[in-house]
């Protein structure tokens, strides 16, 4: 099958849990013989990835990846048998136009639309691949409804009804969608841990209780509360994209 994935984040490097899970999914589908395409951003505002075109080129060069930059508005490369179109376009309308045109050329059997923070990918996918669009959602706060939504939008909620299915990665997300909308979601387990069996790395007598990406969105207040309550236990934090430096201090 031809499988496309739309992601409003960079593809490489993929330090965030969501982008890493999306990448692993495509890589494993490619290993099974499917033809896979990711349409992503080339640059990011985070310090964890390229913020300029020159930094993007340097990153690709350091990884030994050959990039076709002759396209209008995008860089194309291959990584682990997945074709990546990394968009250098800043204007959202132009991004949507590129997505529609690229999907029409690619003729996907399925299009995965991931967390659509700026609300342009789903519409473009539905226009280019009607009846073949699946939403793959990982971030509750990016949903357009419910008490945790940072950007509620009735129109986008209505648009979600046109997707063929909604896939989520937790029972909480599944229940949240069912409770706060008329939509239904299916739970999927993305291949983020590799193949087991896995060694037992837990050690209750030493080490740290650790939080990765300590920030309000990830529940840092709960983590800090536990650290205050259990002063005899060692706690540690690993800062990534959303880390609050003031909180860490």
Q: Briefly, what CATH class of the largest domain?
A: Alpha Beta
Look at the structure and give the mean pLDDT: 93
* N-to-C order of helices and strands: EHEHEEEHEHEHEHEEHEH
Number of domains: 2
In short:
The chain is of the alpha/beta class and 249 residues long.
Description:
- The chain is an alpha/beta fold and 249 residues long.
- The chain has 2 domains: 2-187, 3-Layer(aba) Sandwich (Rossmann fold); 209-248, no CATH class.
- Helices cover 32% and strands 21% of the residues.
- The strands form 2 sheets. A 9-stranded mixed sheet has the order 3-4-5-2-1-6-7-8-9. It has a two-stranded parallel sheet with strand order 10-11.
- Helix 7 (220-229) links the parallel strand 10 and strand 11 (235-238).
- Helix 3 packs parallel to helix 4 (121-128).
- The radius of gyration is 19 Å and the shape is globular.
- The mean pLDDT is 93.
Fill in the keyword field for this structure.
249 residues; alpha/beta; Rossmann fold; 2 domains; two-stranded parallel sheet; 8 helices
Tell me the layout of helices and strands:
Layout: E1 2-10, H1 17-31, E2 35-41, H2 53-62, E3 67-68, E4 74-79, E5 82-87, H3 92-106, E6 110-113, H4 121-128, E7 133-137, H5 154-160, E8 165-168, H6 171-180, E9 186-187, E10 209-212, H7 220-229, E11 235-238, H8 245-248
Parallel strand pairs: 1-2, 1-6, 2-5, 6-7, 7-8, 8-9, 10-11
Antiparallel strand pairs: 3-4, 4-5
Helix pairs in contact: 3-4
């Amino acid at each position: 099958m031809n499988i496309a994935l739309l992601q409003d984040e960079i593809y490489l490097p993929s330090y965030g849990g969501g982008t890493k899970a999306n990448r692993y999914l495509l890589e494993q589908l490619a290993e099974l013989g499917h033809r896979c395409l990711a349409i992503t951003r080339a640059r990011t505002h985070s310090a964890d990835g390229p913020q300029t075109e020159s930094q993007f080129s340097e990153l690709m060069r350091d990884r030994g990846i050959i990039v076709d930059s002759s396209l209008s508005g995008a860089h194309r490369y291959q990584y682990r048998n997945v074709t990546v179109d990394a968009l250098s376009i800043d204007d959202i309308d132009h991004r949507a136009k590129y997505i529609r045109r690229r999907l029409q050329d690619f003729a996907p059997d399925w299009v995965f639309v991931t967390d659509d923070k700026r609300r342009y990918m789903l519409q473009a996918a539905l226009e280019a691949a009607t009846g073949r669009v699946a939403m793959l959602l990982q971030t509750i706060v990016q949903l357009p409804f419910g008490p945790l939504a940072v950007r509620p939008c009735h129109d986008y909620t209505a648009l979600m009804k046109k997707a063929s299915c909604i896939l989520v990665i937790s029972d909480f997300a599944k229940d949240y969608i069912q409770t706060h909308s008329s939509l239904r979601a299916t739970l999927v387990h993305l291949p983020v841990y590799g193949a087991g069996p896995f060694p037992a790395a837990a050690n209750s007598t030493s080490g740290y209780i650790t939080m990765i990406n300590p920030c309000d969105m990830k529940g840092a207040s709960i983590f800090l509360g536990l650290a205050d309550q259990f002063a005899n236990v060692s706690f540690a934090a690993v800062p990534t994209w959303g880390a609050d430096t003031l909180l860490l201090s």
